[in-house]
Design the sequence.
């Protein structure tokens, strides 16, 4: 007995953080981040992270490095890095103390229409929605990256795109992660002759890990962009190849769609949570508004007192998720085509009304939750990387082809996959989409419209300074993965590595189920079941964040360990 007490005393004395020691590295954290003092890139793939860091070291700012990383990932991370997709970039500019949001989401080709993916019986033709030339929206990535570079970068396009060109033309060794990604999509990729030619041997087998992978067609496309800027992609021979592939396969993207593609710079959506400022993605992303809406609901509670991933905490979190995703289903869409009541949704008074619907002792079945109840007067495989430079500029960027390898269709002669972002529309409003999200007319298909997204590049500010920058892939799961990462830091005082690595849960209102990752104890799951939750063990992990935390002049980076191949490069 005495010995036990002594042991406990020793543990307390010996291992308690010394006074003044930064909580960031205290012993409560089982995971430690990568630490650096100058610049950092957290990326889902190593070579691209190193490209970004090299640009920083050579004097580029965070935007230069982000654009270089974005182009490099199009070569080294073909499942989601892209020039044929679209995305969102959130930028913090230190000198002006300003944040801005670059929306380079794909748009529906002009010929697209509400019933595009319905058959004669009015049913959704899923294969055509997911895996055909019609799945593709007009790509925005090239225009978006160039827009960000020209407006907020300091280096030339020639400089930042060159590393991607080198990786494509000289090649790079196939990593275990790339081999795994190609392997898990092999069957469908082999259905497209061009995708097969790009990544597989003639007999359809995979090349060995370590073999040099050259992508001369992609190098050619990138060189067109190097020479002519955005016109090198949206006009001329690259555009001709895209349109020819569309015309030969019932696709919709025309020369006019490509030439007319527009980047939109927007104000990010902002909220406040226990003294932190949350800056995140506005519509056509649903992410920022939902994150803030959930935080507003949670603010009246004391998650820390409940304990991290306790049943009480997860119950309230899940109930708040349901209410917010229910609102998503009705109100969210491209703000140019639908009135999206963001201000009301993120209003703290509205959160107070919603909170009354949370029963502390019982889960409310999703079927009993209707969107927007009491909403006061309505007014009107993706990937993420994060960059911070030595001057305090920060970029957090999520871009995507939608599914891993998009539609799995490559455009002959360009080395580029087509996105299947058209599947992010509600092919049939009121019925679940690819991510089982239910959406309304606000997200019905219409020519020129941007499909609703969940991509949520997000920053948290503390004392007016950027503190966390993060984001994730995962479709509908993106929002809750980002949310829990920042709550873990804000409420549970975890360092960024533990905040990102901790087990997550996900509820999106419909289907009515609470997905729970490994690491939430069986006891907690049982308590959640007793509270009425339909607890489901996810066989898959939830999200894959790339995060940087900034404190006391240091950068703390973490690449989510839920998937292979991520890297934090720094100098
Ligand atoms: O924009 C969206 O919400 C989806 N296209 C994102 C897809 C995604 O994250 C798939 N990745 N795992």
Sequence:
């Amino acid at each position: 007995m005495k010995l036990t007490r002594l042991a406990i005393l020793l543990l307390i004395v010996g291992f308690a953080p010394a006074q003044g020691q930064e909580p960031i590295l205290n012993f409560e954290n089982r995971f430690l981040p990568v630490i650096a003092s100058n610049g950092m890139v957290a990326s889902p793939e190593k070579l691209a992270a190193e490209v970004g860091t090299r640009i920083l070291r050579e004097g580029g700012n965070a935007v230069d490095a982000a654009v270089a990383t974005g182009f490099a990932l199009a070569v080294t991370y073909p499942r989601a890095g892209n020039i044929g997709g679209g995305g969102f970039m959130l930028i913090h500019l230190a000198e002006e103390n300003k944040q801005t949001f670059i929306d380079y989401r794909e748009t529906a080709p002009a010929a697209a229409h509400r019933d595009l993916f319905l058959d004669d019986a009015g049913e959704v033709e899923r294969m055509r929605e997911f895996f055909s030339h019609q799945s593709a929206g007009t790509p925005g990535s090239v225009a978006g990256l160039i827009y960000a570079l020209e407006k907020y970068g300091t280096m030339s396009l020639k400089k930042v795109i060159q590393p991607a060109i080198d990786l494509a033309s000289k090649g790079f060794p196939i990593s275990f992660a790339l081999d795994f990604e190609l392997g898990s999509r092999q069957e469908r990729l082999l259905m497209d002759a061009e995708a097969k030619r790009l990544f597989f041997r003639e007999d359809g087998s995979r090349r060995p890990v370590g073999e040099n992978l050259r992508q001369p067609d992609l190098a050619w496309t990138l060189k067109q962009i190097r020479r002519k800027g955005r016109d090198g992609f949206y006009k001329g021979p690259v555009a001709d190849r895209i349109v020819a592939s569309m015309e030969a396969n019932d696709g919709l993207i025309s020369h006019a769609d490509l030439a007319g593609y527009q980047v939109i710079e927007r104000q990010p959506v902002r909220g406040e949570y226990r003294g932190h400022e949350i800056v995140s993605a506005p519509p056509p992303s649903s992410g920022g508004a939902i994150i803030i809406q959930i935080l507003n609901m949670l603010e009246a509670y004391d998650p820390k007192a409940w304990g991290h991933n306790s049943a009480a905490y997860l119950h309230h979190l899940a109930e708040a998720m349901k209410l917010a995703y229910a609102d998503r289903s009705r109100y969210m869409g491209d703000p140019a085509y639908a009135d999206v009541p963001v201000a009301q949704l993120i209003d703290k008074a509205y959160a107070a009304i919603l909170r009354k619907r949370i029963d502390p002792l019982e889960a409310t079945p999703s079927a009993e939750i209707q969107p927007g109840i009491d909403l006061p007067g309505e007014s009107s495989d993706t990937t993420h990387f994060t960059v911070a430079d030595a001057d305090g500029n920060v970029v957090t960027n999520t871009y995507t082809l939608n599914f891993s390898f998009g539609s799995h269709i490559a455009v002959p002669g360009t080395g580029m996959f087509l996105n299947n972002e058209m599947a992010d529309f509600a092919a049939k409003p009121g019925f679940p989409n690819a991510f089982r999200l239910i959406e309304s007319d606000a997200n019905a298909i219409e020519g020129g419209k941007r499909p609703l997204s969940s991509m949520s590049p997000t920053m948290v500010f503390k004392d007016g300074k950027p503190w966390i920058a993060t984001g994730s892939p995962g479709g509908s799961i993106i929002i809750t993965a980002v949310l829990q990462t920042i709550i873990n830091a804000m409420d549970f005082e975890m360092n960024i590595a533990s905040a990102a690595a901790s087990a997550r849960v996900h509820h999106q209102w419909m289907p009515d189920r609470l997905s729970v990752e490994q690491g939430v104890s069986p006891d907690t799951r049982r308590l959640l079941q007793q509270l009425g939750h339909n607890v489901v063990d996810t066989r898959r992990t939830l999200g894959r964040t790339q995060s940087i935390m900034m404190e006391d002049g240091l950068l703390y980076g973490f690449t989510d360990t839920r998937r292979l191949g991520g890297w934090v490069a720094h100098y």
About this structure: Residues 381-382, 400, 402, 421, 424, 453-455, 473-475, 478 surround 6-diazenyl-5-OXO-L-norleucine (CB under 6 Å). Confidence is low (pLDDT under 50) at residues 1-21, 376-380.
